[in-house]
Every structure is written in structure tokens, then in C-alpha cells.
Design a protein that fits this description.
With 294 residues, the protein is of the alpha+beta class. The protein has eight helices and five strands; from the N terminus they run H-H-H-E-E-H-H-H-E-E-E-H-H.
Length: 294
Amino acid sequence: IDREPARLLKQVSELIAGHGAAAMNQATVTATKSFNLSLGLMVLFALSGAGISILLIRSTTRVLGGDPSELKQALKSIGSGELDTPIERAAYYPGSVIAGLDCLRNQLANSRDANQRAERQARRILNGLNHVEACLMVAESKGEIIYINDSLHQLFSQAQNSIARNWPKFSPDQLERASVREVLNKITGEDWDESAEVWQTECTVGDHTLMLRASALRDCNGDILGSVVEWRDRSQEVLTELEIEKVVQAASQGDLKKRIPMQGKEGFFQSLSGYINNLLEVNQQVLADAQLVI
């Protein structure tokens, strides 16, 4: 009877030990499965992240057309004015940012070339205008003088003292950006009719007789771009006209001894004066010979 409880206790201990080992084994299996599952998920997440990163990099590359350093270099080249070399990668990624930059580079290069051609053409025109005898003044649509050629500057320099009698502040070196209306009104003493396609007048300023012709400049649509004023110093012409008039009047009254002074005359008036003087000389000699015969 005394041995029976001991045997029962032993059986209970063995049963508990068996259940504990089974539970331990089950826990070990469960833990292993959980670890493997976690490890698999971690690997899966890592691979997914790498795939997403690769896709993002490729997508960004297609949008940018290259890596950010290449984009930075393209911007730097354009900013420094290097417009003649195409961006190579632009051809491989049409529609990308770098392709847009290459298009901008090309447009800027074309605009630069067009501006340079226009500048060279304008320089040739200005150079030509500075070597003509005509005295020219050009004003923009707002009435500001933007150009005076060398011939007109020389004319105003010669007539400066005469013009300064009525316009003390006049200076041929300070006419650019001045008002063309003020210049015309001050020198001629008349009101310039800006509405007229052509406005012409002649005025006497001191010892100088000036004739000017103002014409409107229009574009292909008829809008006014500005005006051009051609000046001419008729002082020598007027003096010659008076001298010729006196000689001809004297000749008509029988006085053939008067002659037109040749000093200071050039071109047409020099030839005309010489011709008239020769004609008077011949007529005077003919009359003198006729008187001897009579």
C-alpha cells in the first residue's frame, strides 16, 4: 500500500515531463517558422525596395535625360554662352529636360546669330551714312533724335555760332536724345508739322542759309517708325546766286567788266561761274574789236 503513491507520483512526473518535451518541441518549431517567415518578408521587402529604386532611377533618367550632374553641366554651358555645341544625350531622350535645354540652346544660338547679322548690317548702314555728303538726322517715333551722321555734325559745328544767337544752349555734341521738334523749331523759327509726310522749309541763321526736308518713316503696315531730316547748307549757293544776278544785271545794262568771284566755289557753281565769266570775257572782247573796226 505504501508503494502505490510513489508509483503514482512517478507516473505523474513522467507524464508531465513528456508533455513538457512535446510543448518545447512545438514551441521550437513555431519559433523556427516565425523566424523563417520574418526573414523571407525582410528579403522580399529588400528586393521590392531595390526594384522600386531601380524603376525610380530609370524613370528619373528618362525625365531628366541624364543624371543631375549632366543636367548641371548643360545649364552651366548655356549660361556661359557656349551655344554652338549640341548636347549629345538630348538625341537619346526626346521630350526630356535635357532635350528641352538643347532646344533652348539652339534657339538662343539662332537668336544670337540673327542679332549679330542685324548688328553687322546696321553697322554697315551707319558706316555708309557717315561717308555720304548728305546731312542726315534720324528720330524715333517718340521724337527723340537717335542718330546724326558726320556730315550733319560738321555742318552744325560750322554754323554753331550763328545758331547760338537764337539758341544759346545749342551744341552739336548734345543733340542725340534731344527732341527733334525742339531742334527744328529753335533753328528754323517755324512749327514743324509732324502730321505731314514731307515738311520742307528754308531759313537764314546768321551767315548761313539752311534748307531742310523732314520725312516720315513708316513700316510695312503704315505705322510711323520715326522721321528722317535732311539738312543742306545753301549759304554758298545763295551767295553765288546773288553774285550771278548782279553780273547778269550789269551785263544787261551794257557793263561787261564785272566778273563772278571764283574764290570759295566748288563743283557746279565753280563751273557755272567760270562759264559765265568766260562768256562775258568773249563778249567784251567782241565788242572791243567791233568798236575798233567802227
